[in-house]
Amino acid sequence: MKRLFSILAIASIMTFGSVNATTVLNTTTVASTVATTIQDENSEAAPAESQGFHQELKKRFMQGGPAFMGIVLLCLILGLAIAIERIIFLNLSSTNTKKLTSSVEEALKSGGVDAAKEICRNTRGPVASIFYQGLDRIESEGLDAAEKAVVAYGGVQMGQLEKNVSWISLFIAIAPMLGFMGTVIGMIGAFDKIEAAGDMNPSLVAGGIKVALLTTVFGLIVAIILQIFYNYIIAKIDAIVNDMEDASISLVDMLILNKAHK
């Protein structure tokens, strides 16, 4: 009898243990399945979210019509190309004017005009070029010729700084006008549909009006982007021109003092 109870007890323990093990295994399996499913959903949702903006932008671009939208996009590309080129050129043209002026002044006192010309020759930027032209004229033609050369070459350098900037302003003006033209043409097409249908159905013209307005939105966005770059370039040019004018006055004063000491 005791042996029978022992066998039954062992059997019940084994059965309970196997049930618990099965339960734990099933729970682990379910948890891992849920985690895998959530991970897969997240991995699928991440590319969808990252590609959502580009896909939406592409869809809106195609809805606006490749003809007008393509021309407006070309304005943006050309305007940005010119703006980036001008920004690089202006940054390379910027120099430490005070340091250059003091170096030229010391060179005039110690080594004469030739030493000052050598410093200007080894320095980049419009201010150094103006200094070189003035120093080159002072030796052969005198102070008056040097002053005229500084003024004339300053105008040349200003023209180089402003080169191609007018194209950016042209693209700023053209992009919204092209957008408005696309909108007007789209509205004409929408009213043509109303006339052909003979009924004022909102769903008939809503799509055409939406597509027409997309060209205006895209044109305004292009104009805003290019306007920001244009204002930065103009501010940079004004700063360089002010440095050129101040440096030119300092150069003339240095030449007068140098001539007086001689």
Tell me roughly what share of residues is in helical segments. over 70%
Number of helices: 8
**What fraction of residues sit in β-strands?**
under 5%
Give the uncertain stretches in residue-range form.
Answer: 1-50
Tell me, briefly, the overall form: rod-shaped
Number of strands: 0
- Largest beta sheet, briefly? none
Structural class: mainly alpha
Measured distance between first and last alpha carbons = 136 Å
Number of domains: 2
The pLDDT mean sits at 76
Can you write the helix and strand succession as a string? HHHHHHHH
Oligomer: single chain
Radius of gyration: 38 Å
Give a short overview.
92% of the residues lie in helices and 0% in strands. With 262 residues, the protein is mainly α.
